[in-house]
Write a structure and sequence with these properties.
The structure is a homodimer of 174-residue chains. With 174 residues, chain A is an all-alpha fold. Helices cover 74% and strands 0% of the residues of chain A. Chain A has a single domain (8-172), classed as Orthogonal Bundle (Tetracycline Repressor, domain 2). Chain A contains 9 helices and no strands. The radius of gyration of chain A is 17 Å and the shape is elongated. Chain A binds chain B through residues 24-26, 103-104, 106-108, 110, 114, 117-118, 121, 135-137, 139-140, 142-151, 154-156, 158, 160-161, 163-165, 167-168, 171-172, and chain B through 24-26, 103-104, 106-108, 110, 114, 117-118, 121, 135-137, 139-140, 142-151, 154-156, 158, 160-161, 163-165, 167-168, 171-172. Chain B binds a DNA duplex (30 and 30 nucleotides) through residues 8, 29-31, 39-47, 49-51.
DNA sequence: TCTACTGTACCGGCTGGACGGTACAGCGTG
DNA sequence: CACGCTGTACCGTCCAGCCGGTACAGTAGA
């Protein structure tokens, strides 16, 4: 389920994300990333000229994954809403990891990173809108997804949360 | 509306939060905090022996504010749910600032900070549960609040979000 | 009331360590 | 032997924490 380590470059991006997710932005130093990827610091800097460059590479991959996800959402057999809520709780997918990593980065690199995150959100909202034809409901469902996601990011995952939400949404159904 | 600068200690805590909120955790260095509060670094370290100590002071104040807020929620004239949702979008209150500051801190100081945030969430949920007598709805509303809050923290506030949520909740009302 | 002493609040320079980034000397493979 | 890539030594910067010192208010004793 994880991106295969095709190249040293991929290994470096995976290592960067892993460190961001598991230990936070402070721990994701160039040396730590290189070590995690099994490469020297010089080796890392050969592939990414600077830390900013590493961030750019991460965001680029995030956007690619997010657009694939929006497409998967559209064509999901259980419907976009169900798909969206289910995948808002951390599934351990590549996209999850990329999102959490980006959220961590957003604390420092405000501009670029939060722009990328906003882009991802907009892609999802677009699909919800198209499916529901109801702006208020689409927004509310996105907020619930944000909430689920926020709890995961904050290290307070709640396995029952999804059930409760589905129970409440069921009452709206009719 | 902001905590008065009664003492140098208060000024330091306010300065720390302000820097965390406005410029992120990297910018909130001891020197920067001291400068913002109008004291020297030595002066800061007189009041808070270490940066960890500064974090502890911030969390302590957060918990105090949060318990006051839970009480205000219980006794709000418009009801706890309305109060909770309204104050989930950033109102610029002391509690807001303390929460955003804590969220920023949670990126690095995983343990203590997220424990404090979990405590705050639990206090709110308790009030929602007591009011609604409906676990699923209480949880869902808290998730929506989390979503509203998350968007603010991420620098993507949406002034219309609250209206949409109220519109949807209205449909549940009957 | 003058003096000696104490505790509180604060200052600013220093140090050791970590981090981002650079330079350069290898090393294997085609 | 040339090129793609790796590893290491090093530099400048920044930061947390420490420390010697200052100012001053209060107090107690003669």
């Amino acid at each position: 389920m994880t991106t295969p380590d095709r190249s040293t470059r991929d290994r470096l991006l995976n290592a960067f994300e892993a460190l961001l997710v598991q230990q936070g932005p402070r721990a994701a130093t160039l040396e730590a990333v290189a070590a995690e990827a099994g490469v020297s610091k010089g080796g890392l800097l050969y592939h990414f000229a600077s830390k900013d460059d590493l961030v750019d590479g991460t965001l680029e991959r995030l956007l690619t994954l997010a657009h694939q996800d929006a497409e998967a959402m559209r064509t999901s057999s259980s419907g976009p809403v169900q798909y969206y809520l289910e995948t808002s709780v951390s599934t351990g997918s590549d996209l999850d990891r990329a999102l959490v990593a980006a959220a961590r980065l957003a604390q420092d690199n405000t501009e670029r990173v939060s722009a990328a995150l906003a882009q991802v959100r907009e892609a999802w909202l677009e699909v919800l809108r198209a499916e529901l034809g109801d702006e208020s409901l689409a927004r509310t469902i996105q907020l619930i997804g944000d909430g689920l996601y926020f709890n995961d990011v904050s290290g307070m995952p709640d396995p029952d949360a999804l059930e409760h939400v589905q129970q409440v949404l069921g009452r709206l159904g009719r």
